[in-house]
Batch of 3 targets.
Target 1
Amino acid sequence: MTAAVLFDLDGLLADTEPLHCLAYQEVLGRRGVILGEDQYVEHWVRNGRGIAEFLAKQGICADPEAIRVEKSALYRELIAKHAKPMPGALEILERLAPVAKLALASSSYPDAVAAVLAALDMSCYFDVVVTRTDVMRVKPEPDIFIVAARRLGVKPEKCVVIEDAEKGIVAAKRAGMRCLAVPNRFTRHHDFSAADMVVRSLDDINAEMLMNMCSGQEKGG
């Protein structure tokens, strides 16, 4: 089996992107700012940018940290009520936990990650959790994956990253890791040409597949 598997969270293991979007829509709406789902998907999901960049791009004079804190509180409420795993998420963690080191590597803030892991009872599967505040740069930069591998004590070439978004695939390749893409409805039009494999669902992934990826035997999908 491959030495380590590094998972993204939002949109891969947890169906949380709609909740992130809804929380931002509500908080920005209180300030008279309309955020469309397409805007959210392009800015946050595809490009990996945050609220400060969004406000600057839109020419909106507001405190990004105040908005982030307000959004975070609302997001945690939504997670407590509506969080659900992506299809196959719990099953793949069950399959891989006995045979590989597992890390969660998410660009989200630690309070948001903790809320999702608690709501879905996933914390027990991960040897390491790395979030936005653990690194200087988030995806598409490779820092999160490099830190996760270092904390696991595993070389990058012995890691396989599983991601749902283009920025995550780019980050994985920049980290020197093999990667597998699982697109969702928000990311199905992303460029996954750099991925070593693309599959339709987490249900399509097994330990043998990841072992072959780690040994360089798989490309495409």
Note: The chain has nine helices and six strands.
Target 2
Amino acid sequence: MFTTSDLRKGKKVKLEGGLYTVIDFQHARTAQRRANVWMKLKNLKTGAVLEKTVSAGETFEEPDFEEKTLQYLYNDGTNYYFMDGKSFEQLHITAETLEETRQYLMESSEYRVLFFEKNPIALDLPTSIVLKVIGTEPAVKGDSVTNITKAATLESGLEVKVPLFIKEGDQIKVDTRSGEYLERITNR
């Protein structure tokens, strides 16, 4: 059990029979009233977003998750296949379950997968990931005066807006929460 004071972005919550992750929250107090907490929650099974206001200090049940590190193997369009490196057991996760996270998957990389009641329900990605640029337009000399961006396609298939100085072959860091460019990685 935990209370509203323990809320953090990304925290998993069991609420009204559903499993949710906290997207955003805010403590609010008005004059002569009890403090409230506004929460924006995302259902881990359906992907639906729910906004809920509760009294400050209310307790929540913490779901009993199991977390395993699995290696991503491949996808066949509808399922994504992973392998447990210890038991070599393979399992598949549907494309709907991985809706927003599948664009960050790279073959042969390891990812933390959340299980609830022995069923995979979500990928727990790091906050940023390094990917290689495989396609982008060349920069035009003289366009660097303003903060202009261009589209770039990354090795995972993800498209992001990057500054003009990024070229094919560069490695960039991308925020997995927003899908935005963070920085170019230089090899020294």
Note: Residues 122 and 162 are 28 Å apart (CA to CA).
Target 3
Amino acid sequence: MLDAHFQYSTVFDNVNARRDLGFEHMIPFRKAVERTIEWIQANRGIDAWDMENDDGLITAWRENSRSFLGRISDS
């Protein structure tokens, strides 16, 4: 179930864009977070979490994490 999640790195940065394209941030990080919060509040917020599925999600995460770690440690 979570194989696709572990398939790619979830760490992102803009080093290459800065180096290759001259990318610069248009707004400071804090302002971007403030805008995001304002948008969420203006657009009905975030859907409530379905707490009934927490145990299943945690179990799936642990099982897939063990499976993933087993595959990469065998390499």
Note: The chain has a mean pLDDT of 81.
